[in-house]
Amino acid sequence: MINKIKCNIAKDTSFPFNNNASFCIGTGRMGLALQKAYHDQLKMVQDEIGFSHIRGHGLFCDDMAIYQQYEENGVVKTEYNFTYLDMVIDDYISLGLKPFVELGFMPHKMASDTQTVFYWKGNVTPPKDYEKWANLIKATLLHWIDRYGLEEVITWPFEVWNEPNLTSFWKNADMQEYFKLYEISAKAVKEVDSRIRIGGPAICGVDDERWLKEFLSYCSKNKLPLDIVTRHAYATELPDRVGHYDYQKLRAPEVFLDELKISREIIDSFPEYKGMEMHITEFNTSYTPKNPIHDTNLNAAYTARLLSEMGDTCASYSYWTFGDIFEEQGVAFTPFSGCFGLVANGMIPKPTFWTFSFFKQLTGSCIARDKNYILTKDENDVIRGIVWNPVEEIHGEADIDLSFQLPLDNGKYVIISKLVDENTCNPLKTWLDIGSPNYPSEKELALIKSCANPLTSTQRKTISDKKLDLSFLLKRNALLYFEVKKIHPQVDRGFQPERIQGAHKLETK
Amino acid sequence: MINKIKCNIAKDTSFPFNNNASFCIGTGRMGLALQKAYHDQLKMVQDEIGFSHIRGHGLFCDDMAIYQQYEENGVVKTEYNFTYLDMVIDDYISLGLKPFVELGFMPHKMASDTQTVFYWKGNVTPPKDYEKWANLIKATLLHWIDRYGLEEVITWPFEVWNEPNLTSFWKNADMQEYFKLYEISAKAVKEVDSRIRIGGPAICGVDDERWLKEFLSYCSKNKLPLDIVTRHAYATELPDRVGHYDYQKLRAPEVFLDELKISREIIDSFPEYKGMEMHITEFNTSYTPKNPIHDTNLNAAYTARLLSEMGDTCASYSYWTFGDIFEEQGVAFTPFSGCFGLVANGMIPKPTFWTFSFFKQLTGSCIARDKNYILTKDENDVIRGIVWNPVEEIHGEADIDLSFQLPLDNGKYVIISKLVDENTCNPLKTWLDIGSPNYPSEKELALIKSCANPLTSTQRKTISDKKLDLSFLLKRNALLYFEVKKIHPQVDRGFQPERIQGAHKLETK
Amino acid sequence: MINKIKCNIAKDTSFPFNNNASFCIGTGRMGLALQKAYHDQLKMVQDEIGFSHIRGHGLFCDDMAIYQQYEENGVVKTEYNFTYLDMVIDDYISLGLKPFVELGFMPHKMASDTQTVFYWKGNVTPPKDYEKWANLIKATLLHWIDRYGLEEVITWPFEVWNEPNLTSFWKNADMQEYFKLYEISAKAVKEVDSRIRIGGPAICGVDDERWLKEFLSYCSKNKLPLDIVTRHAYATELPDRVGHYDYQKLRAPEVFLDELKISREIIDSFPEYKGMEMHITEFNTSYTPKNPIHDTNLNAAYTARLLSEMGDTCASYSYWTFGDIFEEQGVAFTPFSGCFGLVANGMIPKPTFWTFSFFKQLTGSCIARDKNYILTKDENDVIRGIVWNPVEEIHGEADIDLSFQLPLDNGKYVIISKLVDENTCNPLKTWLDIGSPNYPSEKELALIKSCANPLTSTQRKTISDKKLDLSFLLKRNALLYFEVKKIHPQVDRGFQPERIQGAHKLETK
Amino acid sequence: MINKIKCNIAKDTSFPFNNNASFCIGTGRMGLALQKAYHDQLKMVQDEIGFSHIRGHGLFCDDMAIYQQYEENGVVKTEYNFTYLDMVIDDYISLGLKPFVELGFMPHKMASDTQTVFYWKGNVTPPKDYEKWANLIKATLLHWIDRYGLEEVITWPFEVWNEPNLTSFWKNADMQEYFKLYEISAKAVKEVDSRIRIGGPAICGVDDERWLKEFLSYCSKNKLPLDIVTRHAYATELPDRVGHYDYQKLRAPEVFLDELKISREIIDSFPEYKGMEMHITEFNTSYTPKNPIHDTNLNAAYTARLLSEMGDTCASYSYWTFGDIFEEQGVAFTPFSGCFGLVANGMIPKPTFWTFSFFKQLTGSCIARDKNYILTKDENDVIRGIVWNPVEEIHGEADIDLSFQLPLDNGKYVIISKLVDENTCNPLKTWLDIGSPNYPSEKELALIKSCANPLTSTQRKTISDKKLDLSFLLKRNALLYFEVKKIHPQVDRGFQPERIQGAHKLETK
Question: Residue ranges of the Glycosyl hydrolases family 39 N-terminal catalytic domain (chains A, B, C, D) (predicted)?
Answer without folding.
Answer: 5-463
